[in-house]
């Protein structure tokens, strides 16, 4: 006997309403705040209506565009490296490997750590005076490097920290996807004479492309929201070389006390993330259409 549709909605409905409210109310509040000039510590009755001024100022602010470019570059490098490394590790360890439980535990540890702890660990590693990295350079006769005080090395430092923390997430997602593959299809490809790289590229990866797309979207969204590690490592410096949009929003809201402007930039960041997510989903649609055909 088929369950009536209304019964299904009766179970799902309350959770859907709660999730919708939890997402929409903060979004509408941020959108509303973007139309006002208001500082924390003052009554809302003193908020001044400025209309679209905050959004226009954000679009015309060179600092916002520099932060956006830094964010795009940071997300592109980190997500690409994490997807490649995490997928490669999953492919290498998908079979029966001795000590697999130990490997998985070690790989998961960085992901399970609090971002503040990750930032503190890497701040110690990159420390110009007492950090192990400069100690290694001194051991081979090289001069110490101010990893977090130079623009080029500071940007590389936040990228390394993010890759170290979130590559395990890609590994876990991919190892789960590969574990669900139909082994008969893989065996058939091998019997037909496919080499190991052809099995990976033409059989395994296409079969887990949905997992790949979901993982890519989750990491892409998270890369735009990262804050704590950069806050601990560089606080957006030196200069604004590592100031991604989330850091720019934090500084505007809590240091500059311009909550309206910060909310306007937050809405713009949401639009950028939504646009990139939509583009990624559109890239996956041709494959789905091909399967349905």
For this entry, give a set of tags.
Sugar ABC transporter permease; 293 residues; MetI-like fold; 13 helices
Structural summary, described in words:
With 293 residues, the protein is mostly helical. It has a single domain (62-292), classed as MetI-like (MetI-like fold), CATH 1.10.3720.10. 74% of the residues lie in helices and 1% in strands. It contains 13 helices and 2 strands; from the N terminus they run αββαααααααααααα. The chain has helices spanning 5-33, 53-60, 62-92, 100-112, 115-125, 132-139, 151-179, 183-191, 196-207, 209-225, 228-233, 245-255, 259-292, and strands at residues 36-37, 48-49. It has a two-stranded antiparallel ribbon. Helix 4 (100-112) packs across helix 7 (151-179). The longest helix has 34 residues, at 259-292. It is globular, with a radius of gyration of 23 Å. The two termini are 31 Å apart. This is Sugar ABC transporter permease. It comes from Amphibiibacter pelophylacis.
Write down how many β-strands occur, each being a DSSP E stretch of 2 or more residues.
Answer: 2
What order do the SSEs take from the amino end to the carboxyl end, as H and E? HEEHHHHHHHHHHHH
Structural domain count: 1
Output the structural class: mainly alpha
What's the CATH first level?
Answer: Mainly Alpha
Count, helices: 13
Give the name of the CATH architecture: Orthogonal Bundle
General form: globular
Largest sheet: 2 strands, antiparallel
How are the secondary structure elements laid out?
Layout: H1 5-33, E1 36-37, E2 48-49, H2 53-60, H3 62-92, H4 100-112, H5 115-125, H6 132-139, H7 151-179, H8 183-191, H9 196-207, H10 209-225, H11 228-233, H12 245-255, H13 259-292
Antiparallel strand pairs: 1-2
Helix pairs in contact: 1-13, 2-13, 3-7, 3-10, 4-7, 7-10, 8-9, 10-13, 12-13
Protein name: Sugar ABC transporter permease
Organism: Amphibiibacter pelophylacis
